[in-house]
Design a protein that fits this description.
The chain has two domains: 6-68, Glutaredoxin, CATH 3.40.30; 79-200, Glutathione S-transferase Yfyf (Class Pi), Chain A, domain 2 (Up-down Bundle). The chain is elongated and about 75 Å long. The longest helix is centred in the middle third of the chain and has 32 residues, at 70-101. The mean pLDDT is 93. By secondary structure, it is of the alpha+beta class. The chain contains eight helices and four strands. The chain has helices at residues 16-25, 44-49, 70-101, 109-133, 149-164, 173-176, 178-189, 191-200; strands at 6-11, 31-35, 59-62, 65-68. It binds glutathione.
Length: 204
């Protein structure tokens, strides 16, 4: 087994528990360098080795990158899916909605169809990636064993694409993207999602 690239510099009785908890929740492998406090402070060996000029905990290393501020560390850990929700899935699918909605009436249906077909390639590619990430050997959630912010962010994007058929026209979604279909149902069956829908009256 290869060595985890993440090392958490963990100071006892500190915000470091935030980072450890998030890493555990997401099932991400990491090493811990544990330090007890000395006179209530981080001990000198913590400050000398963690790589954080402020000498505060948590500090996390991912390969050559050193990060501190527990909020920034949490964002770093979650950023891939949270940004893909907008920067990948909705970017490509909304482009279709905007293009179709703004095509002049002088453009023939055939030309419009060709344009949508061309733009659908990116959406389908994105969905194939999501399908693979949710693969049969996964936990049923995007990052870790339970629902996380990654699911919350990507769920709307996938739900919207399927509901509006943006880039997915003519595809048997339940068969090509069966993992996504099951995951959407799982997300929508979660108690927190149901409560959010009930409280807000959300519908698509
Ligand atoms: N805003 C920072 C605060 C970091 C911080 O102040 N950490 C405290 C522990 S909760 C610390 O390292 N104290 C030890 C010291 O200052 O020597 C964060 O959220 O990570």
């Amino acid at each position: 087994m290869s060595k985890p690239s993440i090392t958490l510099f963990f100071l006892q009785a500190s915000r470091s528990i935030r980072t450890a908890w998030l890493l555990e929740a997401l099932s991400l492998p990491y090493d811990v360098k544990f330090y007890n406090r000395l006179n209530g402070k981080a001990p000198p060996e913590f400050k000398q080795t963690c790589g954080n000029p402020l000498g505060k905990s948590p500090t996390m290393k991912d390969g050559d990158l050193t990060l501190w501020e527990s909020g920034a560390i949490a964002e770093y850990i979650l950023q891939m899916w949270t940004h893909a929700a907008e920067g990948t899935f909705l970017l490509h699918s909304l482009a279709i909605a905007y293009a179709v909605g703004n095509t002049p009436s002088s453009v023939s249906d055939e030309a419009k169809g060709e344009m949508v077909k061309g733009m659908s390639v990116a959406v389908q590619n994105d969905l194939d990636w999501l399908e693979k990430e949710l693969g049969d050997e996964g936990t049923g959630w995007l990052a870790g064993k339970d629902l996380t912010a990654a699911d919350v962010m990507v769920h709307f994007s996938a739900q919207f694409i399927f509901a509006r058929d943006l880039g997915t026209k003519g595809v048997d979604k339940g068969s090509r993207w069966k993992n996504i279909t099951g995951w959407l149902q799982r997300c929508e069956g979660s108690e927190s999602y149901k409560r959010a829908v009930q409280k807000t009256g959300y519908t698509l």
